[in-house]
Amino acid sequence: MTDPVKAGPLQGIKVIELGQLIAGPFCGQLLGDMGAEVVKIEAPGAGDPMRNWGQGKTPVWWQVIARNKLSVALDLRSPDGQQTLRDLAGQADILIENFRPGTLEKWNLDPVELRKINPGLIVVRVSGYGQTGPYASRAGFGGIGEAMGGWRAIVGEPDRAPSRMGVSIGDSLAATYGCMGALAALHHRSESGQGQIVDASLYESVLQVMESLIPEYAVAEHKRTRTGSVLPGIAPSNVYPCSDGEYLIGANQDAVFARLCKAMGRAELAEDARYSTHLARGEHQVELDALIGEWTSQLTVAQVEAAMIEHGVPAGRIFDAQDMLEDPHFRAREAVVTLDHPDYGPVPMQGVFPKLSATPGSVRKLAPREIGEDNADVLQRWLGRTE
Protein backbone atom coordinates (compact mmCIF):
# COMPACT_ATOMS: atom_id res chain seq x y z
CA MET A 1 0.00 0.00 0.00
CA THR A 2 1.39 3.39 -1.02
CA ASP A 3 1.84 5.90 1.78
CA PRO A 4 -0.93 8.45 1.03
CA VAL A 5 1.40 11.26 2.05
CA LYS A 6 3.83 10.20 -0.69
CA ALA A 7 1.33 9.17 -3.35
CA GLY A 8 2.38 12.24 -5.31
CA PRO A 9 0.54 15.16 -6.89
CA LEU A 10 -0.30 13.16 -10.03
CA GLN A 11 -2.06 10.32 -8.21
CA GLY A 12 -4.99 9.19 -10.34
CA ILE A 13 -3.42 10.32 -13.63
CA LYS A 14 -3.09 7.49 -16.14
CA VAL A 15 -0.15 7.55 -18.55
CA ILE A 16 0.63 5.33 -21.53
CA GLU A 17 4.30 5.27 -22.47
CA LEU A 18 5.18 4.23 -26.00
CA GLY A 19 8.64 4.43 -27.50
CA GLN A 20 11.91 3.26 -26.04
CA LEU A 21 15.45 4.15 -25.02
CA ILE A 22 15.74 7.49 -23.21
CA ALA A 23 13.64 10.53 -24.14
CA GLY A 24 10.13 9.05 -23.99
CA PRO A 25 10.86 6.71 -21.06
CA PHE A 26 12.53 9.46 -19.01
CA CYS A 27 9.43 11.62 -19.50
CA GLY A 28 7.41 8.67 -18.21
CA GLN A 29 9.77 8.28 -15.26
CA LEU A 30 9.27 11.91 -14.26
CA LEU A 31 5.48 11.58 -14.36
CA GLY A 32 5.61 8.26 -12.52
CA ASP A 33 7.83 9.69 -9.79
CA MET A 34 5.15 12.32 -9.20
CA GLY A 35 2.47 9.69 -8.66
CA ALA A 36 1.02 8.96 -12.09
CA GLU A 37 0.24 5.36 -13.04
CA VAL A 38 2.51 4.73 -16.00
CA VAL A 39 1.81 1.80 -18.31
CA LYS A 40 4.80 1.09 -20.49
CA ILE A 41 3.98 -0.61 -23.78
CA GLU A 42 6.71 -3.03 -24.89
CA ALA A 43 7.00 -5.16 -28.00
CA PRO A 44 6.42 -8.84 -27.15
CA GLY A 45 9.68 -10.75 -26.94
CA ALA A 46 11.97 -7.79 -27.57
CA GLY A 47 10.98 -5.19 -25.03
CA ASP A 48 12.77 -1.89 -24.53
CA PRO A 49 16.52 -2.05 -25.32
CA MET A 50 17.05 -0.08 -22.12
CA ARG A 51 16.62 -3.37 -20.27
CA ASN A 52 20.17 -4.17 -21.41
CA TRP A 53 21.76 -0.72 -21.24
CA GLY A 54 24.25 0.53 -18.70
CA GLN A 55 27.95 0.38 -17.93
CA GLY A 56 29.83 -1.98 -15.67
CA LYS A 57 29.22 -5.66 -14.93
CA THR A 58 25.43 -5.43 -14.72
CA PRO A 59 23.05 -3.31 -16.84
CA VAL A 60 21.03 -1.45 -14.19
CA TRP A 61 19.94 1.73 -16.01
CA TRP A 62 16.55 0.05 -16.52
CA GLN A 63 16.05 0.05 -12.75
CA VAL A 64 16.08 3.85 -12.79
CA ILE A 65 14.22 4.72 -15.97
CA ALA A 66 11.51 2.06 -15.58
CA ARG A 67 10.75 2.52 -11.89
CA ASN A 68 7.13 3.19 -10.96
CA LYS A 69 5.98 1.60 -14.24
CA LEU A 70 3.83 -1.35 -15.32
CA SER A 71 4.80 -3.39 -18.38
CA VAL A 72 2.18 -4.35 -20.96
CA ALA A 73 3.24 -6.28 -24.06
CA LEU A 74 1.43 -5.26 -27.25
CA ASP A 75 2.31 -5.78 -30.90
CA LEU A 76 1.48 -2.37 -32.30
CA ARG A 77 2.06 -3.64 -35.82
CA SER A 78 -0.93 -5.97 -35.52
CA PRO A 79 -4.63 -4.98 -35.69
CA ASP A 80 -5.32 -6.58 -32.29
CA GLY A 81 -2.48 -4.71 -30.63
CA GLN A 82 -3.53 -1.45 -32.26
CA GLN A 83 -7.11 -1.88 -31.08
CA THR A 84 -6.03 -2.61 -27.52
CA LEU A 85 -3.88 0.50 -27.57
CA ARG A 86 -6.83 2.54 -28.81
CA ASP A 87 -8.95 1.12 -25.98
CA LEU A 88 -6.27 2.02 -23.42
CA ALA A 89 -5.93 5.51 -24.90
CA GLY A 90 -9.64 5.94 -24.37
CA GLN A 91 -9.03 5.64 -20.61
CA ALA A 92 -5.72 7.53 -20.40
CA ASP A 93 -4.88 11.10 -19.49
CA ILE A 94 -1.46 11.26 -21.18
CA LEU A 95 0.21 9.27 -23.95
CA ILE A 96 3.97 9.62 -24.51
CA GLU A 97 5.76 8.55 -27.68
CA ASN A 98 9.22 9.15 -29.07
CA PHE A 99 9.12 7.44 -32.46
CA ARG A 100 10.13 9.08 -35.71
CA PRO A 101 7.25 11.32 -36.87
CA GLY A 102 4.75 9.34 -38.91
CA THR A 103 5.26 6.04 -37.09
CA LEU A 104 2.05 6.22 -35.06
CA GLU A 105 0.13 7.23 -38.14
CA LYS A 106 1.56 4.22 -40.00
CA TRP A 107 0.27 1.98 -37.20
CA ASN A 108 -3.24 3.46 -37.43
CA LEU A 109 -2.67 5.28 -34.14
CA ASP A 110 -2.74 8.88 -35.35
CA PRO A 111 -2.94 11.10 -32.24
CA VAL A 112 -5.65 13.18 -33.94
CA GLU A 113 -7.78 10.03 -34.24
CA LEU A 114 -6.95 8.94 -30.67
CA ARG A 115 -8.17 12.31 -29.42
CA LYS A 116 -11.45 11.74 -31.23
CA ILE A 117 -11.90 8.67 -29.02
CA ASN A 118 -10.79 10.61 -25.93
CA PRO A 119 -10.96 14.41 -26.39
CA GLY A 120 -9.21 14.92 -23.06
CA LEU A 121 -6.14 12.92 -24.08
CA ILE A 122 -2.80 14.72 -23.97
CA VAL A 123 -0.25 13.31 -26.42
CA VAL A 124 3.42 14.09 -25.80
CA ARG A 125 5.41 13.60 -29.00
CA VAL A 126 9.20 13.65 -28.55
CA SER A 127 11.31 13.56 -31.72
CA GLY A 128 14.60 14.75 -33.10
CA TYR A 129 13.39 17.73 -35.11
CA GLY A 130 9.72 18.13 -34.18
CA GLN A 131 6.54 17.07 -35.96
CA THR A 132 6.76 19.78 -38.64
CA GLY A 133 9.42 21.43 -40.79
CA PRO A 134 11.71 20.13 -43.55
CA TYR A 135 13.75 17.92 -41.18
CA ALA A 136 10.79 16.32 -39.39
CA SER A 137 11.11 12.92 -41.04
CA ARG A 138 14.83 12.56 -40.28
CA ALA A 139 16.04 10.11 -37.65
CA GLY A 140 17.29 11.94 -34.60
CA PHE A 141 19.11 10.92 -31.44
CA GLY A 142 20.14 12.99 -28.43
CA GLY A 143 23.63 13.75 -29.72
CA ILE A 144 22.19 15.09 -32.98
CA GLY A 145 19.90 17.40 -31.04
CA GLU A 146 22.85 18.58 -28.95
CA ALA A 147 24.79 19.36 -32.13
CA MET A 148 21.96 21.24 -33.85
CA GLY A 149 20.84 22.99 -30.68
CA GLY A 150 24.30 24.52 -30.18
CA TRP A 151 25.52 22.53 -27.18
CA ARG A 152 28.30 20.52 -28.82
CA ALA A 153 29.85 23.60 -30.48
CA ILE A 154 30.73 25.16 -27.13
CA VAL A 155 31.68 22.11 -25.02
CA GLY A 156 35.31 21.01 -24.84
CA GLU A 157 38.78 22.41 -25.29
CA PRO A 158 39.27 24.98 -28.06
CA ASP A 159 42.01 22.97 -29.79
CA ARG A 160 40.03 19.72 -29.93
CA ALA A 161 36.83 18.33 -31.41
CA PRO A 162 33.58 19.09 -29.58
CA SER A 163 33.02 16.99 -26.45
CA ARG A 164 29.89 15.29 -25.22
CA MET A 165 28.41 15.98 -21.82
CA GLY A 166 29.03 12.47 -20.46
CA VAL A 167 25.29 11.81 -20.16
CA SER A 168 22.51 11.86 -22.76
CA ILE A 169 21.61 15.46 -21.98
CA GLY A 170 19.69 16.09 -25.22
CA ASP A 171 17.32 13.21 -24.52
CA SER A 172 16.90 14.18 -20.88
CA LEU A 173 16.16 17.81 -21.72
CA ALA A 174 13.56 16.82 -24.33
CA ALA A 175 11.94 14.48 -21.82
CA THR A 176 11.87 17.21 -19.20
CA TYR A 177 10.30 19.75 -21.56
CA GLY A 178 7.85 17.09 -22.71
CA CYS A 179 6.88 16.54 -19.08
CA MET A 180 6.55 20.30 -18.56
CA GLY A 181 4.29 20.51 -21.59
CA ALA A 182 2.14 17.64 -20.30
CA LEU A 183 1.68 19.35 -16.94
CA ALA A 184 0.74 22.64 -18.64
CA ALA A 185 -1.71 20.74 -20.85
CA LEU A 186 -3.24 19.09 -17.78
CA HIS A 187 -3.94 22.54 -16.34
CA HIS A 188 -5.49 23.67 -19.63
CA ARG A 189 -7.66 20.53 -19.65
CA SER A 190 -8.87 21.28 -16.14
CA GLU A 191 -10.19 24.58 -17.50
CA SER A 192 -11.46 23.44 -20.89
CA GLY A 193 -11.90 19.68 -20.73
CA GLN A 194 -9.78 19.38 -23.86
CA GLY A 195 -6.45 17.65 -24.30
CA GLN A 196 -3.85 18.59 -26.91
CA ILE A 197 -0.62 17.52 -28.55
CA VAL A 198 2.73 18.49 -27.00
CA ASP A 199 5.47 18.68 -29.63
CA ALA A 200 8.92 18.41 -27.98
CA SER A 201 11.97 18.19 -30.22
CA LEU A 202 15.48 17.28 -29.14
CA TYR A 203 17.20 20.21 -30.82
CA GLU A 204 14.77 22.83 -29.51
CA SER A 205 15.01 21.42 -25.99
CA VAL A 206 18.77 21.97 -26.13
CA LEU A 207 18.27 25.40 -27.71
CA GLN A 208 16.15 26.46 -24.73
CA VAL A 209 19.12 26.23 -22.34
CA MET A 210 21.62 27.99 -24.60
CA GLU A 211 21.26 31.26 -22.68
CA SER A 212 21.98 34.32 -24.88
CA LEU A 213 23.99 32.48 -27.54
CA ILE A 214 21.87 33.66 -30.50
CA PRO A 215 21.39 37.34 -29.58
CA GLU A 216 25.05 37.60 -28.62
CA TYR A 217 25.89 36.67 -32.20
CA ALA A 218 23.15 38.67 -33.91
CA VAL A 219 23.32 41.84 -31.80
CA ALA A 220 26.60 41.82 -29.88
CA GLU A 221 28.60 40.30 -32.77
CA HIS A 222 30.04 37.60 -30.53
CA LYS A 223 30.07 33.90 -31.44
CA ARG A 224 30.55 31.57 -28.48
CA THR A 225 33.24 28.93 -28.93
CA ARG A 226 34.77 26.12 -26.90
CA THR A 227 36.70 27.50 -23.93
CA GLY A 228 37.42 24.41 -21.85
CA SER A 229 36.83 24.73 -18.12
CA VAL A 230 36.68 28.54 -18.05
CA LEU A 231 34.17 31.17 -19.10
CA PRO A 232 36.24 33.94 -20.72
CA GLY A 233 36.22 37.15 -18.72
CA ILE A 234 34.75 35.53 -15.61
CA ALA A 235 37.52 35.03 -13.04
CA PRO A 236 38.27 33.34 -10.86
CA SER A 237 35.84 30.58 -11.76
CA ASN A 238 37.62 27.38 -12.57
CA VAL A 239 38.69 23.95 -11.40
CA TYR A 240 41.99 24.14 -9.56
CA PRO A 241 44.54 21.38 -8.81
CA CYS A 242 44.99 20.14 -5.26
CA SER A 243 47.59 17.70 -4.00
CA ASP A 244 45.00 14.88 -4.09
CA GLY A 245 42.47 15.96 -6.72
CA GLU A 246 40.66 18.99 -8.16
CA TYR A 247 38.41 21.62 -6.62
CA LEU A 248 35.95 24.09 -8.14
CA ILE A 249 36.04 27.70 -6.94
CA GLY A 250 33.72 30.49 -8.10
CA ALA A 251 34.83 33.84 -6.69
CA ASN A 252 34.37 36.31 -9.54
CA GLN A 253 32.26 38.82 -7.57
CA ASP A 254 34.33 41.57 -5.93
CA ALA A 255 33.44 40.93 -2.27
CA VAL A 256 33.74 37.17 -2.74
CA PHE A 257 37.14 37.56 -4.39
CA ALA A 258 38.32 39.57 -1.43
CA ARG A 259 37.29 36.72 0.88
CA LEU A 260 39.16 34.25 -1.32
CA CYS A 261 42.27 36.39 -1.07
CA LYS A 262 42.05 36.33 2.73
CA ALA A 263 41.62 32.55 2.67
CA MET A 264 44.79 32.32 0.60
CA GLY A 265 46.69 34.58 2.98
CA ARG A 266 47.00 37.12 0.16
CA ALA A 267 44.54 39.85 1.19
CA GLU A 268 46.56 42.43 -0.74
CA LEU A 269 45.52 40.87 -4.07
CA ALA A 270 42.03 42.30 -3.67
CA GLU A 271 43.54 45.80 -3.87
CA ASP A 272 45.93 44.97 -6.73
CA ALA A 273 44.87 46.92 -9.84
CA ARG A 274 45.22 43.75 -11.93
CA TYR A 275 42.57 41.95 -9.87
CA SER A 276 40.56 44.54 -7.95
CA THR A 277 37.62 44.71 -10.37
CA HIS A 278 35.57 42.21 -12.31
CA LEU A 279 36.84 43.59 -15.62
CA ALA A 280 40.47 43.56 -14.51
CA ARG A 281 40.26 39.98 -13.29
CA GLY A 282 38.79 38.96 -16.63
CA GLU A 283 41.64 40.60 -18.50
CA HIS A 284 44.21 38.82 -16.29
CA GLN A 285 42.33 35.54 -16.07
CA VAL A 286 45.20 33.23 -17.05
CA GLU A 287 47.71 34.63 -14.58
CA LEU A 288 45.10 34.80 -11.81
CA ASP A 289 44.13 31.16 -12.33
CA ALA A 290 47.80 30.20 -12.22
CA LEU A 291 48.25 32.09 -8.97
CA ILE A 292 45.27 30.39 -7.33
CA GLY A 293 46.34 27.01 -8.69
CA GLU A 294 49.78 27.45 -7.15
CA TRP A 295 48.10 27.92 -3.75
CA THR A 296 45.62 25.03 -4.05
CA SER A 297 48.25 22.60 -5.34
CA GLN A 298 50.02 22.76 -1.99
CA LEU A 299 46.88 21.67 -0.12
CA THR A 300 44.50 18.74 -0.10
CA VAL A 301 40.93 19.02 -1.34
CA ALA A 302 39.74 18.85 2.28
CA GLN A 303 42.04 21.68 3.33
CA VAL A 304 40.94 23.92 0.48
CA GLU A 305 37.30 23.16 1.18
CA ALA A 306 37.69 23.99 4.86
CA ALA A 307 39.20 27.36 3.93
CA MET A 308 36.41 28.09 1.44
CA ILE A 309 33.70 27.27 3.98
CA GLU A 310 35.37 29.35 6.69
CA HIS A 311 35.58 32.40 4.43
CA GLY A 312 32.18 31.98 2.73
CA VAL A 313 33.51 31.43 -0.79
CA PRO A 314 31.24 29.50 -3.21
CA ALA A 315 33.18 26.35 -4.01
CA GLY A 316 32.75 22.61 -4.17
CA ARG A 317 34.26 19.19 -4.66
CA ILE A 318 34.03 17.37 -7.98
CA PHE A 319 31.69 14.54 -6.97
CA ASP A 320 31.63 11.06 -8.46
CA ALA A 321 29.18 8.26 -7.60
CA GLN A 322 31.21 7.08 -4.61
CA ASP A 323 31.32 10.60 -3.18
CA MET A 324 27.55 10.94 -3.55
CA LEU A 325 26.86 7.70 -1.71
CA GLU A 326 29.12 8.75 1.17
CA ASP A 327 28.04 12.39 1.46
CA PRO A 328 25.86 13.42 4.46
CA HIS A 329 24.00 16.13 2.52
CA PHE A 330 22.86 13.64 -0.12
CA ARG A 331 21.62 11.39 2.70
CA ALA A 332 19.88 14.15 4.64
CA ARG A 333 17.88 15.26 1.59
CA GLU A 334 17.26 11.73 0.30
CA ALA A 335 18.86 12.76 -2.97
CA VAL A 336 19.75 9.08 -3.29
CA VAL A 337 17.26 6.33 -2.45
CA THR A 338 17.95 2.62 -2.21
CA LEU A 339 15.62 -0.08 -3.53
CA ASP A 340 15.85 -3.74 -2.55
CA HIS A 341 15.91 -5.77 -5.75
CA PRO A 342 15.38 -9.56 -5.77
CA ASP A 343 18.21 -10.06 -8.28
CA TYR A 344 20.70 -7.31 -7.45
CA GLY A 345 20.13 -6.66 -3.76
CA PRO A 346 20.29 -2.99 -2.68
CA VAL A 347 20.17 -0.67 -5.72
CA PRO A 348 20.89 2.99 -4.90
CA MET A 349 19.77 5.62 -7.40
CA GLN A 350 18.76 9.27 -7.61
CA GLY A 351 15.62 10.09 -5.65
CA VAL A 352 12.50 11.94 -6.74
CA PHE A 353 12.97 15.59 -7.67
CA PRO A 354 11.79 18.33 -7.35
CA LYS A 355 10.65 18.03 -3.75
CA LEU A 356 7.07 19.06 -2.95
CA SER A 357 6.18 19.96 0.63
CA ALA A 358 2.53 18.82 0.59
CA THR A 359 2.40 16.04 -2.02
CA PRO A 360 5.92 14.64 -2.46
CA GLY A 361 6.52 12.01 -5.09
CA SER A 362 8.19 8.69 -4.36
CA VAL A 363 9.65 5.53 -5.83
CA ARG A 364 6.80 3.13 -5.16
CA LYS A 365 7.63 0.25 -7.45
CA LEU A 366 10.64 -1.54 -8.89
CA ALA A 367 11.13 -1.60 -12.65
CA PRO A 368 9.23 -4.46 -14.36
CA ARG A 369 11.31 -7.65 -14.42
CA GLU A 370 9.40 -9.35 -17.25
CA ILE A 371 8.05 -7.98 -20.52
CA GLY A 372 4.27 -7.81 -20.28
CA GLU A 373 4.12 -8.91 -16.65
CA ASP A 374 1.25 -6.50 -15.96
CA ASN A 375 -0.98 -7.30 -18.96
CA ALA A 376 -3.71 -8.99 -16.92
CA ASP A 377 -3.74 -6.36 -14.17
CA VAL A 378 -3.88 -3.34 -16.50
CA LEU A 379 -6.38 -4.79 -18.98
CA GLN A 380 -8.67 -5.82 -16.14
CA ARG A 381 -8.54 -2.50 -14.28
CA TRP A 382 -8.48 -0.14 -17.25
CA LEU A 383 -10.69 -2.04 -19.70
CA GLY A 384 -12.65 -4.49 -17.56
CA ARG A 385 -11.36 -7.46 -19.56
CA THR A 386 -11.45 -10.88 -17.95
CA GLU A 387 -8.23 -12.73 -17.27
From TrEMBL:
<keyword id="KW-0808">Transferase</keyword>
<dbReference type="InterPro" id="IPR023606">
    <property type="entry name" value="CoA-Trfase_III_dom_1_sf"/>
</dbReference>
<dbReference type="InterPro" id="IPR044855">
    <property type="entry name" value="CoA-Trfase_III_dom3_sf"/>
</dbReference>
<dbReference type="InterPro" id="IPR003673">
    <property type="entry name" value="CoA-Trfase_fam_III"/>
</dbReference>
<dbReference type="Pfam" id="PF02515">
    <property type="entry name" value="CoA_transf_3"/>
</dbReference>
<dbReference type="GO" id="GO:0008410">
    <property type="term" value="F:CoA-transferase activity"/>
</dbReference>
<dbReference type="InterPro" id="IPR050483">
    <property type="entry name" value="CoA-transferase_III_domain"/>
</dbReference>
<protein>
    <submittedName>
        <fullName>Formyl-CoA transferase</fullName>
    </submittedName>
</protein>
